[in-house]
Amino acid sequence: MKKIIIANWKMGLTFKETQFLLEKISTFEAYRHFLIVCPDFLNLAQATQILKDTKIKTGGQNCSFHHHGAYTGEISALDIKAAGAEYVIIGHSERRRIFKEDNSMINQKIKIALEAKLKPILCLGESLLERKTGRTRPVLSSQLKNALKGIKIRKASDLLLAYEPVWAIGSGQPMESEEAERMHKYIAERAFALTGKRLAVIYGGSVKPDNAHDFIKQKNIAGLLVGGASLQAKSLKRLLNI
Ligand code: PGA
Question: Active site residue: 94, 126, 130, 164, which one?
Answer without folding.
Answer: 164
